[in-house]
Fold this sequence. Notes:
Layout (H helix, E strand, L loop, with lengths): L2 H15 L5 H17 L1 H11 L15 E4 L5 E4 L5 E2 L23 E8 L7 E3 L10 E3 L2 H6 L3 E3 L5 E4 L10 E3 L1 E4 L6 E9 L6 E8 L8 E6 L8 E5 L11 H4 L4 E3 L14 E4 L7 H6 L3 E8 L3 E8 L5 H4 L13 E4 L6 H4 L4 E8 L1 H6 L13 H5 L4 H7 L8 E12 L2
Parallel strand pairs: 6-9
Antiparallel strand pairs: 1-2, 2-3, 4-21, 5-10, 7-8, 8-21, 10-20, 11-17, 11-21, 12-13, 12-20, 13-14, 14-16, 15-16, 17-18, 18-19
Amino acid sequence: MHISAFLAFTLSSTLTLFPLCTTARVSLLSHAHKVAIKHSSSLARDLRIALGGVLVAQPGSAPTQNVYCVSNDGGVIVSSGNGSFSSPSSTPTTSGSQPATTSSVPSSPWKPIATYSGSTFFDGWTFFTGGDPTNGNVQYVNQGTAQSAGLVRINKAGNAVMSVETTPTVQSNRMSVRITTNLTFTEGLVILDAVHMPTGCGTWPAFWTNGPTWPNTGEIDIVEGVNNYTDNQATIHTGVGCSIATSNSTLLGATGTVVGGTDCSASQSNNEGCGMRFSSPTSFGSGFNSVGGGVYAMYWVNSVGIKIWYFQRGSIPNDITVGAPQPQNWPTPMAFWPNSNLCNISNMFNDHSAIFDTTLCGDWAEGVWGGTGVPGQSVSCQQQTGFATCAQFIQASGSSFNEAYWEVSSVKIYQDTS
């Protein structure tokens, strides 16, 4: 009998004879595993995978009883033992988070309420087609137009790509993409895994969440910056009545630097809100892209406040990678707006959706067109491009926007079920 047939017969007999996870079953399965190692290293690897779900843990470890089934399309459906099933993404990726073992990660009270990844990434989003509220030189287009123009796609790595039009010259605005989740949520943990973000003079990309009535239901800018900036700026915008106690970020419990004032209300801050600039030159733009990107996590719990972390590729906590986030174990966040008597978070933030967009020029990028001094912007875009205004540059320089694209592995939104 061929070794593979023999092992198949042995395993079938084993599972019949020992329907429960008994010591005898484990012993016999372990013996079969040793035979596989002796005869075929590749078959052993396959066998290890096959037996992963039936080998028992050591006494006292109280493992979760998972049941593994194969779906019709060949994917794996996992049941946690409580009757609920999920289908982990099997989409390949070359730069995003890699699969990791869950053996050393405890269970998390944070459970996913939405996952956007792979070939279905764009399901559950609405393509915004209105005028740009920040006065940018963009024409946001619907999904059909974006697809036919090559502005959105799923690449070979299984990542979602959202680009800006690169036609050499345009008469007015360039086509771009802005998408909003159909899902709305109050409180949660939003985790973005991206390998590339738009960069370059004239660009203003952002990943953020927003309520239905701006600014009274709040805005949380998770990723944002303009032009050649390399240090991310996270910001909150609110209605009247929200401020932070100090501009000393250390006292606030954050590693970033407070920029602007301490009054977060849009009306009192000229729409600038309360910003915190990160201390990492790989957290935005070309710096982010040069390291293969990373993960952003936004934590929103009304009784605590709002926190934002950035983890560079290669330094992403394993609990994030395996889908069991443990934010209480993460290091000091780069941004933190605490719940306090100065800002009641539950009154200021409600019913948010997540949003991606890439604006061109607009109030911010155009406003600092001739400026320098911000990390990444040692030379002004005006000097670098030779154009007096951002709008002139946008219309005449399509090839300059080859790097103006998002490449996203996944967006996951969790809520605390404890």
